[in-house]
Amino acid sequence: MPDQAVVKATFADGSSTTYPKGTCFSDILEMKGDVSPSIIAVRVNGNLLDLSAPLSDDARIEFISADSEEGHDILRHSTAHVMAQAVQDLYPGVKISIGPSIANGFYYDFDYERTFNIEDLEKIESRMREIIAEDLPITREVLPRQEALTLYREKDELYKVALIDDLPDESVSVYSQSTFTDLCRGPHLPSTGKIKAFKLTSVAGAYWRGDEKNKMLQRIYGTAFADQEKLDAYLEHLEEAKKRDHRKLGKELELFSISDEVGAGLIIYHPKGALLRRMLEDFEVREHLKRGYQLVKGPQILKVDMWKKSGHLENYKEFMYFTDVEGQQYGLKPMNCVAHMIIYQSKIRSYRDLPLRYFELGTVHRHERAGVLHGLPRVREFTQDDAHILCTPEQLHQEIKSIIDFVADVMHIFNFDFEMELSTRPEKTIGSDEDWERATSALKKVLDEHDMPYRINEGDGAFYGPKIDVTLKDVLDRKWQCATIQCDFSLPERFDLSYIGNDGEKHRPVMLHRVILGSLERFMGVLIEHYAGAFPTWLAPVQVMLLTITDKHAAFGEDVFNQLLSHAIRVEKDFRNESLRLKIREAQLQKIPYMVVIGDKEVEEGGVSPRLRSGENLKLMPLHEFISLIKKESHVPQ
Ligand SMILES: [Zn+2]
Ligand SMILES: [Zn+2]
Questions:
Q1: Residue 36 pLDDT more than 90?
Q2: How many angstroms is it from 45 CA to the middle of ligand 1?
Q3: Which end of the chain is more exposed for a tag (fewer CB within 10 A), N or C?
Q4: CB distance 312 to 305 below 8 Å
């Protein structure tokens, strides 16, 4: 019999060592001579564990540093525990509920008799600093379910009791530091002293279990990073994002508003916003016509029978709005596909007619829960740059390729980086194996040829076909969903679409749904933040702002104004009897590309001296020269 059982650990670098069975991972670290303080947890055969856990079998082992993605989660979740302890210490009677890590941070929900404010956050932060300075060990314990229930009943933590009640397990794990104990799966930092840099960022209301019928709790948000430098960079990034917030800029630049009186999630476009939107629409129409698309337009409401036929009633009903007209039920369209199918059906199609590319700036309505509505990206009414392409199987590859090229061209024009993702066949599907194979390999082949990295989401396609999703990255490196290319085996079947092939037989066409920008509303929101409201001349709702120094310059000013207007230049004027300094200040806040001040010199010489948004002044020039300059900049960049 061996003296003591040994087990083998295989490390990330491929090396392996044997240890007495039961050696804990922090001891293994020490034996390896690796005392890097940034290591906070370990992955054992794919599972994340505490450093205090024992090595009980042969295993692959990878140590997790605080600076990695998983490390951030553990660090932030542990900081949430420390925050909850601080809140318990400072506010007797407070009840704790849940506190997970989230993208870029963490939160914890509390039930307390009054609302927390900024001063509270500061107090909590300083108590947290004390807890961190004490470097309290964070320990794990597994309790029988009943014991855990008793523990939290005694502490009068009703939310924790409710959470345990919901767990199917016979035993539960809890993590403790000092007097604080939280129901938790873990893993956690070995001790509170491992937290090097954190910040509480905000407090907001949040319903218990996300259900508006439940009590409103208070959610304190915060974040933590491996070091102060990274935290500072992130906070600076947050500040910049706040300055660029499209809801704030939308109001300041008078682009759009949302009114509870009118309805949540419904956008009201003010003159400048409507103009900006029109610029985008014109751009879209031009780009689509250039690429052989045909403009079509379907009605806003369609008979319910149509939605039955399309499958929307069965699969999408909860997102739809319905209305009765003369005893007939209609559904407000949540997607634009149906009318396009009807157009295709309207006559006999030959293979020579294909591909057909129907394009519509289609306004759709989708019922989103009030809780998820947010500015321009999440609304209940929006317009898609939607197209449906019907082609032969042989044409599919070329069509997908053209769409990807289209996406790449558009992203280039707006200066966005983008990423692509392919979602493949899920478990439950319609369509034959052959259909799936052909469509998936067509999508994949185009991505491979395009020489761009992409991700594959195995099994994540819709039941009716595989798809490519495109996410763009803005200047702040945030990701936004834009284009989608979706194969569909269902609709051509449901609408019995066909074409006559060169063999004289009837065939089923292949169909693609696709959007390029996606929702115009969301894209506008992204653009506002991307440009921080300072749109390039071709998109700017106002391109030129005219200012007079005194009333005696107004007559010439009017003349310049009318000439610019007659050249379709988007111009505004401020001829008020106010100080020039004030007028310039106000114009600057509007972030207009060109400001033109009219004074004695301009009137005498009959020219203008434009001033760029950057503050740079151009020399006095004849008006026609300025007009050509603006016209040149009004072209969409290529
Ligand atoms: Zn926890
Ligand atoms: Zn569609």
A1: no
A2: 22
A3: N
A4: no
Are 294 and 357 in contact by the 8 Å Cβ rule? The answer is yes
| pTM (2 d.p.) | 0.79
- Known catalytic membership, residue 513: yes
**Nearest ligand, measured from the Cα of 77:** 1
- Which residue type does 563 have? Q
Active site residue 384: yes
Ligand nearest to the CA of 341: 2
- Residues 575, 578, 582, 586, CA torsion sign: negative
User: Could you report the per-residue pLDDT of 544-579, keeping only the tens digit for each?
Assistant: 999 999 999 999 999 999 999 999 999 999 999 999
CA nearest neighbour of 472 among 522, 418, 514: 418
pLDDT per position as a tens digit, 287-327: 999 999 999 999 999 999 999 999 999 889 999 999 999 99
Q: How much distance in Å is there from the Cα of 142 to the middle of ligand 1?
A: 14
213 C-alpha to ligand 1 centroid (Å): 25
CA of 74 from ligand 1 middle (Å) equals 9
For residue 379, give the amino acid letter.
V
| High-pLDDT (> 70) share of the chain, % | 99
Beta-carbon contacts of residue 491 (< 8 Å; ≥ 6 apart): 310, 311, 337, 341, 464, 497, 511
Reported as a single tens digit per residue, the pLDDT across 412-426 is 999 899 999 999 998
pLDDT above 60 for 1: no
**b/e map of 380-415 (b: 16 or more CB within 10 Å)?**
bebbbbbbbbbbbeebbbebbbbbbebbbebbeebe
CA of 160 to the centre of ligand 1 (A): 12
The three-point CA angle 320-321-323 to 5° equals 140
Query: DSSP character for 269?
Result: E
- The whole-chain average pLDDT of the chain stands at 93
Return the ligand number nearest the Cα of 362: 2
Asked if 556 contacts 598 with a C-beta cutoff of 8 angstroms, the reply is: yes
Is 386 assigned a catalytic role?
yes
- Mark whether 337 is an active-site residue: yes
Dist. CA 162–CA 149, nearest whole Å: 9
Backbone angles phi, psi at 486, to 5 degrees: -120, 120
Q: What is the pLDDT of residue 431?
A: 80
